[in-house]
Each structure stands twice: as C-alpha cells, then as structure tokens.
Amino acid sequence: MLLRAVIYFFREAVLNLARSWKISLVAVSTIAVSLFIGGALAMLAGNLRRLVADWQREAKVIVYLRPGAAADGALQAALRQPPWVTGVTAVSAAEARQRFERYFPSVAELVRGWGEEPLPASLEVAFDPEQVDARAFDGWLQRLHAFPQVGMVDDDRDWVRELQGMLRVIGVVGVSLVAALVLGAVFTTASVIRLTAYLYRDEIGIMRLVGGTELFVRGPFYVEGFLQGLLGGAAALGGLFLTYRLLVPRTPQTWVAGALTGDFLDARGQVLLVAVGALAGLAGAVASLRREEV
Amino acid sequence: MIHFYRVSKHYGEQRALDEVTFQIERGEFAFLTGPSGAGKTTLLRLLFRQEVPTAGQILVNGRNVASLPRRKVPFLRRTMGVVFQDFRLIPRKTVFENVSYLPRVLGLDRQRQKRLAYETLRRVGLAHRMKAFPLELSGGEQQRVSIARALINQPEILIADEPTGNLDPEMAREIFELFLEINRRGTTVLIATHDTRVLERLDKRVLALRAGKLTDDSAAAGDLAAPLSEVVGG
C-alpha cells in the first residue's frame, strides 16, 4: 500500500512539474545556482586542504650555520634527538648557492661574483608533523638557537599555520555562504510549491472532501519539492563538472591554479551535493505546506 | 444515524444556523429545503465536517462529528458520499481517475480500482465513458460521474447539495431516479434542494429551513400544513 502511495505521489509530482514547468524551473535554477557555488567552494576548500597537507608533510626546520661554522657532534645529536625528526640533510654554502641559481635564474647574478660563498651552509631537518608535540617542538627550537654555530632557525610550521588559518577562514566563509544560498533556495522552493498548491487548491479541496488524508493530499507536493531539489542538485553537479573540464586545460600551471582546479569532487562530495539539493527542495515543500491547509 | 441536537453556527453576528434539532434514521431519504441563505449548505458542511458548529452536537453513527480530531475527519468523510451542484470534478483527470481517487487513497491495486470504478459507473450508466475527461461530458453526465465518485466506497450516507441546480428538468428527473435507486439499496440520502416540483413529486420527508431555523419537519412533503411553495419561499 505504501509503495503504491509513493508511486502515486511520484506520478502526480512529475505531472505537476511538467504542467507548471516554468515556475518549477525557477526553483530548480535557484537550487542549481546555490549548489553550483557551494560545490565550487567545497572543491576549492578540498584542494587547498590537500595542498596544505602536502606542504605540511614536506615541512622542514632549516638550521642556518654562521659563516665558517660546522655542525659538531653535539649539534648533530640535538638535531636527531626528538622522536619527530625523520632525517637531517647537510647543505653546504656552495650547494645553497647552486640551488638559488637553479630556482631563481633571473636573479642568479645576485649570488655570483662574491669573494666567498654569499649564502650560509645549513642543516635541513625533516620531521613527521603527526608526531610533533607543539610545546616540546618550541623548546627544541630554543635549544638549537642556543648553539653558538647556529645563526638562524627557520621553521616552516609558521607559514603552514598561516595557511591553515586561511583555510579555516575560507571554510567558515564558504559554509556561511552556502548555508545562506541553500536557505534562499529553500525559500524559493517553498514559494513555488505554495504557488502550485494555490493553483490546484480546488482539486486539493475535492481530494479532502472525498476522504483523502493529509499525507495523501500533501504527498505529491512533498515529492515535487524533492524532485525540484534533486534536479537542481544534478544540474549543479553537471554544470560544475562541465566548468571543471573546460577550465582545467586552460589554466596555467601555477600552484594557485592547482589549488583551484586540482581534483574534482569525490564520489561522496557529488552524492552530498545532489542530496543537499533534494533535501533543500523537500524542506521547502514541507515549510510551504506546514502552516496552512493547502 | 444522523442526529443534530441544538446545533448553531454563527459567522460573527450572522446566525447561519440557530439551534437546529432533528434526527434521520438509517436508510431514510430526506430533503432539506428552504430559500437561498436559509442555512442548507451550512448544515451539510457541518455534517461532513467542513465546518465546526458554534454550539450543539452532531452525531453520525454515534460519533460526535464536531469533536472529531482533524486527523480522523478523512475517515468520517469516507463513510459519506458528497455531491455538489457544480459537480466538483477534476478537469485534468479522466472519469476513471476522478471516480477512483478514494480507492487509490485506500491502497487498492489498479485492477481493483478499475473493477470498482467500472461497476460504479455502470450503476450511473456511464461505464462507456471511463476514459473521457469531464469537460467532454454533458452536465447530466458530469453529475452522474460525481455521484459515482460519491458511491464508490459504498457510503452509508449520501449527501447532495442542490445536485440538479445546473441541469435541465429531464436530466434532473434522471438524477433523482438515481438517488431513489441508491436509497432503495439501503443508503441514507439527504438532499438539499429548493426545487418544489421535486418535493411535491417524491413522497419523502422534508426538513425546511428558514433564516437558520428548522421551521418544518414532515414525514412526507404532502403532509405539510402550509403549501410547499410557502415553506420553501419560492
């Protein structure tokens, strides 16, 4: 019986959608636009998160030595002592210069023609961010600073932290924006469903008169809202995928572009996008019929 | 079967019904008559709980209609068939879909819906028009579809509000024949009409309303002390 009722709801909802397709299109478009923006933001945030995680994995502590100084056994031991250290690589002053010339060829002149090596030798300490205890890490850096042959200690964690902060801001702004857009879509769907219910008020009155229960009378409208949301979600996903496919080959290979167009939404994200659309449509229909006798 | 006890319905200062009391027994055929604005439609709307009385009790099969929770109203309505002057058919649905709405609500499969709709439409002489749309039918045919819709769940009570108001005399006669036949099968029938010719022709009980008050209640129209035209006001 329930299955038959659901089939009837779907049939009526599809008929309603087809009959009043112009106003349904308003709801579907609103949901599609909202979810397109939401999906794009989710994709951006996901790619940025991955990028930061990669950087975090590659983060290093670089201990720059004073000119002419060398890492003695005590410094080497201090560097390797903490459990989070996964490796120490010595970079001589000459290697540092060669790297600079390789990475920045346009300004390579800056490090050429000096009597002695212009860049300091360093020790690059790789570490596992998962193992790091922040307070112990800071204490360890302080101890490294105290060695007389150490000129400067550069900690990648600072800018990774800044990036993570930026990511949090993007997340909060994105979630707020998407919430506002989805709410707007819910209200639009609610208005469209209310309008449809108003158009069919005579029929609805007849259904009630002959003994139709509220669920049976409202069911097709709930399904109509659900379908509008589903279509909106699917349209947003399709639009997003199309935009992604068109954009990726035309994007220059920079890290910013990589962050924007790195990976498309994963399967879970795609399902979630369409599900949010369907739920927004359903919520709109429930909200529109909640307070009044349709 | 139907018991109105001191039922009043007020809309602000206006008294649509004023302390109306009567009883209709199971299987009875009764007319409700009176001039326009007498309260006939209000009385019927109270009966199938489209309105709630301001005061008084309405019992249908011992159930107090006025105090029925809203969620139970559909179940009350399924025990009644309602027919209106303007037919109230859904124009975009076929005759079959109009008639079989309640069986669908009740969860019957499509085969049973079809069989039931066919049998009921055959009773009103329209089995051959199942696939037609209401606007393709004449007024009399539309009213017969509306009666079929009211009968499909074999209701205990059939209520009709001016069912022949939009029909010519010949079609009206056919529709009343149909109501009599339905009544002969045991259904209680209550019809609101101000057609005095019908009341005079059919020897049935008449409840007369005027300005919201029950002014006459007779076992047969012929027994009324005053001429019918005076009771009805037209």
Provide a concise account of the structure shown.
The complex is a heterodimer of chains A (294) and B (234). Chain A is an alpha+beta fold and 294 residues long.
Architecture overview:
The complex is a heterodimer of chains A (294) and B (234). Chain A is α+β, with helices and mostly antiparallel strands. Chain A is built from ten helices and four strands, in the order H-H-E-H-E-H-E-H-E-H-H-H-H-H. Chain A has two domains: 2-54 and 161-289, no CATH class; 60-155, Alpha-Beta Plaits (2-Layer Sandwich), CATH 3.30.70. Helix content of chain A is 69%, strand content 9%. Chain A has a four-stranded antiparallel sheet with strand order 2-3-1-4. In chain A, helix 1 crosses helix 8 (214-247), helix 2 (21-58) packs antiparallel against helix 6 and helix 6 packs across helix 8. Chain B has a single domain (28-53, 68-222), classed as 3-Layer(aba) Sandwich (Rossmann fold). In chain B, a hairpin with a 2-residue loop joins strand 1 (2-11) and strand 2 (14-24). With 234 residues, chain B is of the alpha/beta class. Chain B has a six-stranded mixed sheet with strand order 6-7-8-3-9-10, with helices on both faces. In chain B, strands 2-1-4-5 form a four-stranded antiparallel sheet, with helices on one face. At the A-B interface, helix 1 and helix 7 of A face helix 2 and helix 4 of B.
